[in-house]
Request: fold
Amino acid sequence: MDAGGDRVLHSTNIAVIREVYDSEYSQHCFSVELEKALDSCCSYIVIEPTQLGDETARWISFGNYLHKTAVLSGITSIISGFVWPQSFTPQAPLSILSVLCTGLYTASWQFDHCVKYQVERDPRKLARLPVLGALTAASPVVLVRKDDTRRKILHCTVSITSAALCIYKLYCTIK
Reply:
């Protein structure tokens, strides 16, 4: 790594955002380096700067929370529609929650490269990374690139199915 804070790209496709403060704009440089690493689709991204790592981990966790909320509320809405076929009370709010979470997730994360990454917390998997021994930070955040196609299909399908069943039930009730 050079003194300018550039990321180090290893042959194993690992980007390391080093915590090197060489100017008053270092925090901005760290963010730019993270964007470069995300754009280059590295398999692993190690973030040494604590603030950037924490913010990135929280952003990914919030996206995971929206995804899980969309899926769980959608599935619960579908099940409640079959359990209580004459009532909208449990089904409609859950379906609305599912669609809102899916919409927010899609709008906020559709063009964000962070959506392709998860925070790795398993010490056994982290121990396999060759660069961890050479880091200066005590607890870096490690991002692992994952294929998110299935999770997008899952929450969109569940939300659309939930909303369609709710609309169909409303149509049958009005008819």
In short: Residues 50-83 form the longest helix (34 residues). The longest strand covers residues 141-145. The CA atoms of residues 111 and 168 lie 32 Å apart.
